[in-house]
Design a protein that fits this description.
The protein has about 270 residues and is α/β, with parallel strands linked by helices. It folds into 2 domains: about 150 residues, NAD(P)-binding Rossmann-like Domain (Rossmann fold, 3-Layer(aba) Sandwich); about 100 residues. It contains 9 helices and 8 strands. Strands 3-2-1-4-5-6-7-8 form an 8-stranded mixed β-sheet, sandwiched between helices. The two termini are about 35 Å apart. About 30% of the residues are buried. The model has no long low-confidence stretch (mean pLDDT about 95). The chain binds NADP nicotinamide-adenine-dinucleotide phosphate. NADP nicotinamide-adenine-dinucleotide phosphate binds next to helix 1 and helix 3.
């Protein structure tokens, strides 16, 4: 199987490296293209580096489109004349719908939403496949993505909210712990570096403890926050005040997701009417 990656940014680079690392596909069968060619020129000794997206499309059996939503339409138009009816097209973007994409290429299209945690093989990668994807196509995509970790299939309408606890969450978790670290600094002379290390190890350790011992969030709270104790004082504040913040967070992200999809739809429709 020849795999092509269009867009060598945060996600494209990670997917290319993970597939190569897993040796699921040999490097000679991996293709990369990027708008700014200079960014991928150094890869020529290892992979097939393409000067254009069309060159990549002519060679690859499965193409990952790893670009921002505003750039997807141009790429679909570029690759359209070069792909066969069996080429699998996989978009990493949750906002551009199958309906929008199929107006340009009525092909086998899927979406795959990874998380940066795939870099250390700890992601849940979401996938959803359009109706033209056969069971064999889906299995081929899943097998390929399993080189990074677990794969979860969701219906298209759930990909948006599904992305929040997967691809957005590393950002949310980091922001939350940044706030906690800043508050802690105000209450101690322990160095910032030490506070961050303590938080990071406790955060990872808590996650591993829960996974290995099948504990729920409430189980951990009950284990640590003894009745009338110090931890309970802190957890009370969190349960009292944080829901307002997290409800607002999901309201805002889902609103932004709708706006992005509408903007993309306008963009796709304007071009199709030219
Ligand atoms: N970041 C995440 O954690 C994450 C998680 C899941 C899904 N996603 C989705 O994945 C997609 C990519 O995100 P990202 O964070 O990797 O973006 P990014 O870091 O901004 O990278 C985008 C890459 O696409 C290239 N590009 C743009 N237009 C192109 C074109 N016409 N032909 C070839 N290459 C082109 C850019 O090239 P230049 O070098 O010229 O800028 C850049 O290298 C987005 O749709 C995003 O929603 C991201």
């Amino acid at each position: 199987m020849k795999v092509g990656i269009i867009g060598y940014g945060s996600m494209g680079k990670m997917i290319l490296e993970k597939i190569a690392e897993a040796k699921f596909v040999e490097c000679k069968d991996l293709y990369a293209a990027n708008r700014t060619y200079e960014k991928i020129e150094h890869l020529t000794a290892v992979y097939n580096v393409c000067k254009t997206n069309a060159e990549l499309a002519a060679a690859a059996d499965i193409i990952f489109i790893c670009v921002r939503p505003a750039d997807i339409r141009t790429i679909l138009n570029e690759i359209k004349p070069l792909i066969s009816k069996n080429t699998l097209i996989v978009s990493l973007n949750g906002s551009i719908t199958f309906e929008m994409m199929s107006k340009i290429i009525d092909h086998k299209i899927a979406k795959a939403i990874p998380s940066v945690t795939a870099e250390i093989n700890r992601p849940k990668t979401l996938i959803c496949c359009s109706s033209l994807f056969s069971d064999d196509d889906r299995i081929a995509l899943e097998d390929l993505l399993k080189c990074m970790g677990d794969v979860i299939e969701l219906p298209e309408e759930e990909i948006g909210m599904g992305s929040e606890p997967v691809s957005c969450m590393p950002g949310f978790i980091s922001a939350i712990f940044d706030v906690i670290s800043n508050s802690a600094k105000k209450h101690t002379n322990i160095s910032e570096q030490q506070i961050i290390q303590m938080l990071l190890h406790t955060m990872v350790g808590t996650g591993n403890l829960m996974l290995e011992k099948c504990l729920s969030f409430n189980d951990v709270v009950a284990r640590v926050a003894a009745k009338g104790g110090i931890t309970e004082e802190g957890t009370k504040v969190i349960y009292d005040m944080l829901p307002k913040v997290t409800d607002e967070m999901f309201d805002k992200t889902l609103e932004k997701r709708i706006q992005t999809a509408e903007k993309a739809r306008d963009n796709f429709e304007q071009i199709n009417s030219i």
